[in-house]
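Hello forum,

I keep getting stuck at the same step: I have a sequence, I want structure tokens, and every attempt I make locally crashes halfway through. Rather than fight my setup again tonight, could one of you with a working pipeline run this one for me? It's a single chain of 69 residues.
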Amino acid sequence: MMPRTLDGVVIDETARAARCKVCGASIWWGYTREKKRCPFDIVDDARTAVTHFSTCPEVRQFEHGRGKS
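Reply #2:
Ran it on my machine without issues. Output:
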């Protein structure tokens, strides 16, 4: 299957899926338009171009790359 593009983000169905270590949401790991590795949301088993940093209720724990503290 060829990757598709959504809002400038390549949606790779073969990329690793995981759970957010903080809130437990389903995410997949991809790359932003700037080629930076980033978690994106999975909604109803579909990969989205929505960065999980914009939807995670505990996003403050990720500030400055510190992760869970």
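The CA atoms of residues 19 and 25 lie 5 Å apart. If your local run keeps crashing, start a new thread with the error log.
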